[in-house]
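Please annotate the following for my students:
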Amino acid sequence: MKSLISILIVNSFVFSQTNFEKGMKFYDNRSDGANGIIAMDTNIDSAIFFFKNSDKNNFSSLMLLKSLYFKGEFVIQDLEIKKNIFEEAKILGKELIKEYPYDANIRYWYIVNLGSWGQSYGVLAAAKEGVADQIKFHSEKIIEFDPKCENGGGYFMLGVVHFRAPYIPFFLTWPDKKIALELLEKANNISEATPIQIKFLAKALVHDGQIDNAKLLLTKLSNSIPDPALLIEQRKEIIESRELLKQLK
């Protein structure tokens, strides 16, 4: 009898959860069963389903953007399917910015997805779409609305696009590696730097000739333990930091 009552209580709790709460539960378990930096699709697909079927607001929309990014970056290996995921996220992000123009977090996750869209579709498609200019514009808006958003995410993304985007005379004249270094340092100093922020700062330091400083950052990062809540995301940065460190030795 007790066991039946327990089952009824559990079932009552599960069915009383909102779709958003169910989505969060699956999202929080997105790394379960991962093989290295490749996640299983089960939990993140469930998260996407429930976020899509949640009451529409900026919170559920933000989580949908984050979930699509995770699926495209850490689950899907087929390039064409990956393109479709980031295309969906790109379209969604544009719509959400119109709906929530002052939400810095939505802008941040839109440009994160947009960056992955550019990497998936390639340099020519990214140039035609104006990906670099869009990331610059939205990064500056994020800094304007909330400089501390995503641990200095506006400064970080602006630094990354300055670092990555090629200087093209008469077409793309604003990318500047010196400015990139300044922005990445600023992002790292806003709060406790995230692994991806540390990695890109190290890359910028290498480009600036500050090899020893870059090695110090990469050594610390390569020996760190990923946060269980961000297991695959941080594991990826730790693995890449070790590879970068090997190249500097």
